Amino acid sequence: MSQTASEVLMSRIQSKEAHVAVLGLGYVGLPLALLFAEKGFRVLGFDTDAEKVRLLHEGDSYIEHIPAERVAQARRSGGLEATDDFSRLVEADAVLICVPTPVGDHQEPDLSFVEATTEEIASHMRSGCLVCLISTSYPGTTREVVMPILNRSGLRVGEDYFLVFSPEREDPGNPRYSTRNIPKIVGGLTPTCKELGIALFSQVLERVIPVSSPEVAETAKILENVYRCVNIALVNELKTLLDRMGIDVWEVVDAAATKPFGFSAFYPGPGVGGHCIPIDPFYLTWKAREYGVRTRFIELAGEVNTAMPEYVVARAAQALNSKGKALNGSRVLILGVAYKRDVGDLRESAALQILELLRAAGAEVAYSDPHVPVIPRLRRHRLDLKSVEVTPQTLRSSDLVLIATDHSDFDYELVVKHAPLVVDTRNATRAVKEHRDKIVW
């Protein structure tokens, strides 16, 4: 008796003979591709960026927290190959979609990358293939957007091909958690789809969490980021109030965090960045309108966080005014433009908006970030700036130094000693003992 398509695929997964295709080799796709290659699978990585493909062919890395040697080893072992030839999707037994899911100018979902990628898969997919959407999106995307496109291939979901959703949970630069040990949620269109998804990820990850449907998995990912968005908005709003009251918001949060139950510490900042928190909650608010529901709590949190860069610039202007200077014409040095500490990731970074707001107000801006030597031309930003070195001279020649990202590379004692005025949005100078009268939080 001949084996079914699912039985053949399960056997290939369990023996690690399955060929894994990863579409989108960014912060999510590349770590996943490397992990599968390191666990003995043959991996074919796809990206439309020819420069990324070239660097991977040469055994090099374009993501700061992924060592080049790790890529080189995967290339030497023959486990990883990169290409921009999507016709080679026909070679894949499992296809992982890790492409961007941004929002438009009106906070509406932009699924153009997912749709275009799925069209490519449908054009080249063969029977017995597992397709997994990893890109974050609203509940229903896998069933309502991806499945109809794949069905145009003439193959039947759950019988000829298999479809699951398994959200990414990457945290670039986190020394404790990496792709390997972050639990992976898997929801399938059918029980067989789910079983195959579990089998695939169980080969390379420490823990896989099955859920009843793709919609549950999609919503779980959105909930994780809504939770963070709302709590960050809460402390950001408290920060604006406590500033006026003369109360240190960071000390308040640290004190509250001593409670061993019922409280998780979130800290204020100049805004929110990264691909998840500024974007993902709006996927749910958009989907909610289809059901006639307004998610007011999520929308309010988004408004609070979005307003933080303007608040920071206003505080900078007040700080300069207290020294008899106007923001217009002042020299402002920004320390850190990445969205979080000790990484080079610029996605949705609040520091970029702060730079633009300062420049629009007439300030002469510069920045220093050891992880971002050049700010490239981005979809929303055209800054065209290069990082400058933090020296006593560059600090003294600035009217104001604004700490936007608290990289551990910066010498904050040096900064406060030589800068005439410091605006600290991250409490990075908390350990500085001298010249504290120069610091505005």
Question: Care to give the gist of this entry?
Answer:
The protein has 441 residues and is of the alpha/beta class.
| Uncertain runs | none
End-to-end distance: 73 Å
The helix-strand sequence is HEHEHHEEHEHEEHEHHHHEHEHEHEE
* CATH topology term of the largest domain: Rossmann fold
Please count the helical segments. Answer: 14
**Structural domains: how many:** 2
- What strand order characterises the main sheet? 3-2-1-4-5-6-7-8
Oligomer: single chain
Largest sheet composition: 8 strands, mixed
Structural class: alpha/beta
CATH superfamily of the largest domain: NAD(P)-binding Rossmann-like Domain
Q: Can you tag this structure with a few keywords?
A:
2 domains; Rossmann fold; 441 residues; 5-stranded parallel beta sheet; alpha/beta; 8-stranded mixed beta sheet; elongated
Element layout with pairings:
Elements: H1 5-14, E1 19-23, H2 29-38, E2 42-46, H3 50-57, H4 68-76, E3 80-83, E4 94-97, H5 112-124, E5 129-133, H6 141-151, E6 161-165, E7 184-188, H7 191-202, E8 208-211, H8 214-245, H9 249-256, H10 280-290, H11 296-322, E9 331-335, H12 350-360, E10 364-368, H13 392-396, E11 400-403, H14 412-418, E12 422-424, E13 439-440
Parallel strand pairs: 1-2, 1-4, 2-3, 4-5, 5-6, 7-8, 9-10, 9-11, 11-12, 12-13
Antiparallel strand pairs: 6-7
Helix pairs in contact: 1-7, 5-6, 8-10, 8-11, 11-12
